[in-house]
């Protein structure tokens, strides 16, 4: 069966989302599925359903040096 480009893109987005959820479990962030999904959407700044490397890397300094308590990066690796 040949998949449509839309099916391929949807499958890839599903895998990225699943991988993000697994990474949050590995980082032991203690976020439930709903909070992990909310974090995924916040880090995905352009809302295309797939956080880019730049979007993810932008959240890292927020975690370590940011002063905005509501910044997405503060949840990326769990409580500091």
Instruction: Please report the distance between the alpha carbons of the first and last residues.
Output: 48 Å
Mean of residue pLDDT values = 83
Low-pLDDT regions: none
Helix percentage: 55-70%
Note the main sheet. Answer: none
Radius of gyration: 14 Å
The H/E string reads HHHH
Structural class: mainly alpha
Written overview of the protein:
The protein is built from four helices and no strands. The protein has 80 residues and is mostly helical. Helix 1 packs across helix 2 (33-43). The chain is globular and about 45 Å long. The N and C termini lie far apart (48 Å). The relative contact order is 0.15.
Secondary structure elements and pairings:
Layout lengths: L4 H22 L6 H11 L9 H13 L7 H4 L4
Helix pairs in contact: 1-2
